[in-house]
Amino acid sequence: MREAVAQAVPVPAVTHPRMRQMVEEVLMGSPVARTLGVQLEVLMPEHVELVLPYSAGNVTLGNTVHGGVIATLIDIAGAAAAASGADPGQVKGGATGSLSIQYLAPANGTSLRAVASVVRRGRRQVISDVEVYAEDSDGGTLVAKALMSSTLFG
């Protein structure tokens, strides 16, 4: 499932309970995540999966999910992945440093799944790869792919 990840700092075998709480309260509990309906499905060190149920309120035209909504899902997933393997004694929060997205297919009338994995973890910077899939009858069309850097602060 996961390839070897280049690490500058050690990663725990399980997500620390305080980091899980941070993800659940700060990221998933944020007004934007709650408004969009983002749901946490998988949280383990260096890997997060979120689901965004389809909503007519998240579309651009017709039933196509807005690119900004997809970008927000990516941002939340990347931030959660960055937090998932962090040391709670060293990290009190974080912010997105950069985000580069390639939109590959439209998301028409379907729920979305964001799969975020840490590519490299440093002391203060974490690079995550995020893929967004349409949860459709084709078994999951790749809708967008992103590379994100998160800055962690203590």
Describe this structure in words.
The protein is an alpha+beta fold and 154 residues long. It has a single domain, classed as Thiol Ester Dehydrase, Chain A (Roll). It has three helices and nine strands; from the N terminus they run E-H-H-E-E-E-E-H-E-E-E-E. Strands 1, 2, 3, 6, 7, 8 and 9 form a seven-stranded mixed beta sheet that branches. Strands 4-5 form a two-stranded antiparallel ribbon. Helix 1 (17-27) runs antiparallel to helix 3. The longest helix has 18 residues, at 67-84. Belongs to the thioesterase PaaI family. Keywords: Hydrolase. Residues 63-137 form the Thioesterase domain. This is Thioesterase domain-containing protein.
Short recap of the structure:
Helix content is 23%, strand content 41%.
CATH topology: Thiol Ester Dehydrase, Chain A
Mean pLDDT: 91
Spatial extent as radius of gyration: 15 Å
What's the overall geometry?
elongated
CATH architecture: Roll
Beta-strand segment tally: 9
What percent of the residues sit in helical stretches (DSSP H or I)? 10-25%
Quaternary organisation of the protein chains: single chain
Q: Largest sheet, if any?
A: 7 strands, mixed
Structural class, from secondary structure content?
A: alpha+beta
Distance between the termini: 31 Å
